[in-house]
Amino acid sequence: MLKRKNFAKLTDSGGPFKHRGAKKRAVDKVKEVLPVTPEKKAAVLSTVLESPTTRQTLALKGLVSSVEAKKEADVNSAIVADTRNLIQTIKDGWSKDSRAAMQCCVSLPCGDNVAKSKMQKAVAETLTINRERI
């Protein structure tokens, strides 16, 4: 059984508030001031989140993705789409060259890092190929 003091230590992320009660009071004050309609509330919060320092702090906590992370995600999705299209075009061939090209296309994005991080199933689902090919 956790005592109340130990539970507060576990749940608090070491943020700017000394106690979770202080954090709750601050959140309650903000909720009272925010508009009631979801559209207006979203507009106010998006304006507050556009501040560079607030955005950077939230990105460090992992709550908002940074510009670099968004760019990397866009690049990754483009690479996956291109690879998926390439595999779909090669998949129908029955010649030796076609099978060799398919093996090359599948082995390129599925290297040692995928095996180490145990992501073979996710990669197979993303590329729409059979799990045994990886």
What labels describe this entry?
single chain; 134 residues; mainly alpha; 2 domains; 8 helices; 69% helix; 0% strand
Largest sheet: none
Total helices: the number is 8
Estimated helix fraction: 55-70%
As a whole number of angstroms, the C-alpha radius of gyration is: 24 Å
Instruction: List the secondary-structure elements in sequence, H or E.
Output: HHHHHHHH
Distance between the termini: 47 Å
Structure characterization notes:
The chain folds into 2 domains: 16-64; 69-133, no CATH class. Helix 5 runs antiparallel to helix 6. By secondary structure, the protein is mainly alpha-helical. It is built from 8 helices and no strands. The longest helix is centred in the middle third of the chain and has 24 residues, at 67-90. The chain starts with a helix and ends in a 7-residue tail after the last helix.
Give the SSE layout.
Layout: H1 4-11, H2 20-33, H3 38-49, H4 52-61, H5 67-90, H6 96-107, H7 112-116, H8 120-127
Helix pairs in contact: 5-6
Outline of this structure?
69% of the residues lie in helices and 0% in strands. The chain has helices at residues 4-11, 20-33, 38-49, 52-61, 67-90, 96-107, 112-116, 120-127.
